Amino acid sequence: MVNFTEKEAAIEAEAPVDIAINWNSLGGNATRLRYVSAALSDIALKHGDIDLVVGIATSGVPFATMMADVIEDLTGTATCISIFHPKKHRTNPTNSDEGAISSNFGTVDGKKIVIVDDVTTSGDTIKDVIKVVKDHGGDPVVVTVLIDKSGLEEVDGVPIESLIKVSQLR
């Protein structure tokens, strides 16, 4: 007979390991957020020209806003933003689509796009936004994230670049 502690240990060994990321010391300060956005912009521009920055709601939006401003300053090219609302944030998540691009901001059609988010864990949201951007005629050049917990280097041929990569040590 298996006692409770052995059973707990077996369950714990099978459970996926994840960590919580608290970056409010960056997000709570506009100057720090701009510095991080400038670093993400520098990484993005190494992959080519950018016309539009798509921020993944909710936490990718402040980065997208500041990145568009930084990219415009660095390149002299007008750079717009748009917002992707992932399926997981929608009021009806059983809807079969991958998410939606906000119609209140820049359109993705014909644009060279950097996608930005704060943290990537599984890559599912990244995969969804890339599909939606391509379906709407956009050219996703690169995905930039502050923190990568997924270990993915690319999704559907689009490179993923991060400032910080998190790995589990065993």
State the main characteristics.
170 residues; alpha/beta; Rossmann fold; seven-stranded mixed β-sheet; 5 helices
In words, what does this structure look like?
The protein has 170 residues and is α/β, with parallel strands linked by helices. The chain has one domain (23-165): Rossmann fold. It is 35% helix and 26% strand. The chain contains five helices and seven strands. The chain has a seven-stranded mixed sheet, sandwiched between helices. The radius of gyration is 18 Å and the shape is globular. The mean pLDDT is 88. Residues 33-155 form the Phosphoribosyltransferase domain. This is Orotate phosphoribosyltransferase. Pfam families: Pribosyltran. InterPro entries: PRTase-like, PRTase_dom.
The number of helical elements comes to: 5
Q: What is the CATH domain class?
A: Alpha Beta
Can you count the beta strands? 7
- In the CATH hierarchy, the architecture is 3-Layer(aba) Sandwich
| Rg computed from alpha carbons, rounded to a whole number of angstroms | 18 Å
Major sheet details:
7 strands, mixed
Write the layout of secondary structure elements.
Elements (H helix, E strand, L loop, with lengths): L3 H11 L9 H4 L2 H16 L6 E5 L3 H16 L4 E7 L12 E3 L10 E9 L3 H12 L3 E10 L5 E2 L2 E8 L5
Helix pairs in contact: 3-4
Offer a concise description of the structure:
This protein is α/β, with parallel strands linked by helices. It has helices at 4-14, 24-27, 30-45, 60-75, 124-135, and strands at 52-56, 80-86, 99-101, 112-120, 139-148, 154-155, 158-165. The chain contains five helices and seven strands, in the order H-H-H-E-H-E-E-E-H-E-E-E.
